[in-house]
Design brief:
- With 615 residues, the protein is of the alpha/beta class.
- It contains 19 helices and 24 strands.
- Strand 9 and strand 10 form a beta hairpin.
- The radius of gyration is 25 Å and the shape is globular.
- The structure holds fructose -6-phosphate (F6R).
Length: 615
């Protein structure tokens, strides 16, 4: 987590840094800070607990001049969120300033060693040891900032993206990366630096993604220099052209990014599908899968690793792949998989599913599976992020930047890609008929329009939210393809409204959870017409018999559940395997409106960050 920004050029650095921090605030928002070098070589550092707006307020009457600077927005790992632990951190002499995203695992050992050399530490962070270490190396080796950073990166163990400035050299930023993302934007005689491309896009669309172990020396009006970890060889720079637009990063008239992203889903899913189903609707084309046809045809097992919402999408992917490809699929939490000494066989395929492409656990699980001989495949949203750059193959979901911390359009994008993938592999293997592929592919094409229809019921869902705003607990029930939908609905509610909610397989409820049901515990039941519809209807009766209130999500025209449930929300009929794409929408809206009614910070809920780049 945490976001870092840097600027060097002719503009006032502060403006670029603050704007960049706002763009990166989704990565962490418990404190932030900036450091600028002013003309006479003064280093001004301003930090503030809270959001970036608090920092702006704090800096409003300060000297914010200077055309070089670095900045940081924090999600605390070591040390509580306060002004002292906020970045940038400064070396003992006040000469060097540094911002860091990641975690330094051996910081206690380094801190101890530096303390013995007379260094005093003011913060509780792991980061402060890096800046002190750099100064120590510079003083002892009489070397440049670049040489000191290169040496320091050999001594630290952990994940880092760092940007470092030296008060005595206002014409240079040194940056380095290991397991945390860093992008450099190339302007006209100026450079931008950030954890992702969102702070850069309004100035330039030319970027360089730093690779693990690389160190960059960034100087205005000079060519960008990138070195390998030994600081010897200059690496070849690969310039990427960004496809993102600035409009995608704005709220576009919506009160929150989350609402914008929910309402964007007809368009984002059109983009996700575009060019991937042939014009006659008979075949799916996903080049990452087709290029690796023999791997998918011959595998005995697919493992999907993911976290949070992506894990829920993975559970739906398991149903899809097992049903249409007859390949056993195991879905693992990435954080559990990586430390479980997992059995990975040659020929296994591991799919890393991640919106951000930066989730530390998912990335580590992918690396582990790769070492053990699996063929790894990434499915991500953020172009150029770490996961798509790590595996030999993969595909993007192409739903555009997701800024709201609660994932919405990425979830539906992930499920859509997994559905297309299942059809493609099934067709290649001959485990699904051409007629079934054509039927489901046609239905996939209908999804954007059907979601639009559901969105037109948003006022009804807003009214329903008013009834349940003050409930303290919720149960979400679903079966089959919609059991993961129940998990996802509960997670959405929990994370943005702070109401306790549990997602459960509807039939499992009677083995314990049913004891919770009473008049104060509403159940949201996904009861669409699928192969377990009658069973779900029974489960609703069991809840009603115990005085529970039921909000049911039903297939259009359903009268049975309508007569039984307290409230119903209809979704159109579609192939069963695609129903989670439709049921997700009312669940997202319900959580959103309840959170708004409770006055929650919907886009930036407490304690969370969008990219979880720490363990
Ligand atoms: C919940 C949410 C998180 C993420 C999880 C994985 O709304 O967004 O649970 O799904 O942190 O993130 P990615 O998909 O970026 O790996």
């Amino acid at each position: 987590m945490c976001g870092i920004v840097g600027y060097i050029g002719k503009r006032r650095a502060y403006d670029v840094l603050i704007q960049g921090l706002h763009r990166l605030e989704y990565r962490g928002y418990d404190s932030s800070g900036v450091a600028m070098i002013t003309d006479p070589g003064e280093l001004n550092i301003y930090k503030s607990k809270g959001k970036v707006s608090a920092l702006e307020h704090f800096a409003s009457n300060k000297d914010i001049s200077g055309t070089i600077g670095i900045a940081h927005t924090r999600w605390a790992t070591h040390g509580e969120p306060n002004d002292i632990n906020a970045h940038p951190h400064c070396s003992q002499s006040g000469r060097i300033a540094l911002v860091h995203n990641g975690t330094i695992e051996n910081y206690t050992v380094l801190k101890e060693a530096l303390s013995q050399q007379g260094f005093n530490f003011v913060s509780q962070t792991d980061t402060e040891v890096v800046v002190q270490l750099i100064e120590y190396i510079m003083d002892n080796n009489h070397c440049t900032l670049f040489e000191a950073v290169a040496e320091a990166t050999k001594r630290v163990v952990g994940a880092y993206a760092i940007a470092v400035i030296d008060r005595q050299n206002p014409r240079q930023i040194v940056a380095a990366r290991q397991s945390s993302p860093l992008v450099i934007g190339i302007g006209e005689g100026e450079y931008f630096l950030a954890s992702d491309a969102t702070p850069i896009i309004e100035y330039t669309n030319k970027v360089v993604y730093l690779n693990d172990g690389e160190i960059a020396v960034i100087e205005p009006d000079k060519e960008l220099k990138v070195y390998d970890s030994n600081a010897i060889g200059k690496n070849k720079i690969e310039i990427t052209e960004l496809q993102m637009s600035i409009e995608q990063l704005e709220k576009g008239g919506y009160p929150h990014f989350m609402l914008k992203e929910i309402f964007e889903q007809p368009r984002t899913l059109s983009d996700c599908i575009s060019g991937r189903i042939t014009a006659d609707g008979k075949r799916v084309v996903l080049s990452g899968v087709i290029e690796n046809r023999s791997k998918f045809l011959n595998t005995n097992r697919i493992i999907i690793v993911a976290c949070g919402t992506s894990w829920h999408a993975a559970l739906i992917g398991k149903h899809l792949i097992e049903e249409y490809c007859r390949i056993p699929v195991v879905v693992e939490y990435a954080s559990e998989f990586r430390y479980s000494n997992p059995v990975v066989n040659q020929g296994d395929i591991l799919i890393a599913l991640s919106q951000s492409g930066e989730t530390a656990d998912t990335l580590a699980a992918l690396e582990l599976a790769k070492q053990r001989g699996a063929f790894v495949f990434g499915i991500c949203n953020v172009i150029g992020s770490s996961i798509p750059r790590a595996p030999p193959s993969g595909c993007y979901i192409h739903v555009g930047p997701e800024i709201g911390v609660a994932s919405t359009k990425a979830f539906t994008g992930q499920v859509t890609v997994l559905a297309m993938m299942a059809l493609l592999i099934g067709q290649m293997k001959g485990t699904v008929t051409d007629q079934t592929v054509e039927k489901i592919a046609t239905d996939i094409r209908r999804i954007p329009t059907l979601i639009q229809d559901i969105l037109s019921q948003s006022e009804k869902i807003e009214d329903l939210a008013k009834i349940f705003t003050y409930a303290h607990n919720f149960l979400y029930l679903g079966r089959g393809y919609n059991y993961p939908s129940a998990l996802e609905g509960a997670l959405k509610l929990k994370e943005i409204s702070y109401i306790h909610a549990e997602g459960y397989p509807a039939a499992e409820m009677k083995h314990g959870t049913i004891a919770l049901i009473d008049n104060d515990m509403p159940s949201v039941v996904i009861a669409i017409k699928d192969n377990v519809y009658d069973k779900t209807v029974n489960n609703i009766q069991q809840v009603k018999a115990r005085g529970g209130k039921v909000v049911a999500i039903v297939t259009e025209g359903d009268t049975v559940v309508r007569n039984m449930a307290d409230y119903v929300i209809e979704v159109p009929e579609i192939s069963e395997c695609l129903t989670p794409l439709l049921t997700a929408i009312p669940l997202q809206l319900l959580a959103y409106y309840i959170a708004v009614n409770k006055g929650r910070d919907v886009d930036q809920p407490r304690n969370l960050a969008k990219s979880v780049t720490v363990e």
